[in-house]
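Figure caption, in words: inputs first, then the predicted bound structure.
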Amino acid sequence: MSDQKRRNFLKLGLIGAAVGLVKPFKASELVAKSFETKIDGPIVISTWNHGLAANAAAWEVLRVGGNAIDAVEKGVRVTESDLTNRSVGIGGMPDRDGHVTLDACIMDHESRCGSVAFLEGIGHPISVARSIMDKTQHVMLVGAGAKKFALEQGFDTIKTPIPEVKAEYKKWKKENQDLFKKPEINHENHDTIGLIAMDKKGNLSGACTTSGWAYKMHGRVGDSPIIGAGLFVDNEIGAACATGLGEAIVRIAGSHTVVELMRHGYSPMDACRLAVERIISKHKDLTNLQAGFIAIDKNGVVGSYSVYNGFNYALKTDTEEKIVDAPFNRNW
Ligand code: SD4
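Bound structure (N-hydroxy-L-asparagine present):
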């Protein structure tokens, strides 16, 4: 953000606060700044440990002056291709009927976006989402229509579940005769990749892709392909993405909420924290309700926050490549 724009924005914030429209920035609401990093130059952040490999691929694009949108797509394709990953791409866990249904979305610095949900048998849902963004007038395609589009675009089909996953599913099915028992989400079965990047020009983009909640109901779609829930980018302000229990994230339009809080002057970490606190305030039962956000603002400040401990993200810059533990509201 230019200095002039920032001044205008702060002025607007003060006027808004005076008339009760905008929540003013309160110093007392800030938590330790040590959790935030301001970075000059390109940045990539992505959820969980598998983010390291995705960031490295995204970095190959950013390093040579490539665009953030190409970087985010290239990055998460690595995770989608990893057959050992049980929560993203074709190695993902199936729903309770044995189908692996994939969700993904992508958004660029011009607020162009594409999304695909309930897609079966296609290896790179993120690239299908990118094609929807680039080649159609729509934002979102789902199910059979999304598959038809993917085939028309020349995407290869892949048989899922892969054999190892099929074996796990059979075992689960045998042990869970009551298929409509509430499936549990925990920190082992929710590892979506959400990746956001800032390129050399300072433009932001994001991508999010998942096989969703293991043993979900057939037809269930989570937050990950929902623009504003699993991912949101506003190039004037910042970008955010989410991981965790999709239903809880959708309820508060999570990633959009984080970006809007940044618009109102909150730092990325405080914006993530306030979104998490909003989730907490909307749920009486927080058992197994993990949800976390990562965010970058337009000035290159990075932040994150989660409901429970154990959430982390991968950070890549010119000088660093590391996993960062997110601050959290409570212990498991
Ligand atoms: C979902 N949010 O489908 C996804 C799952 C997830 O890390 O984030 N896993 O609800």
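The longest strand covers residues 301-308.
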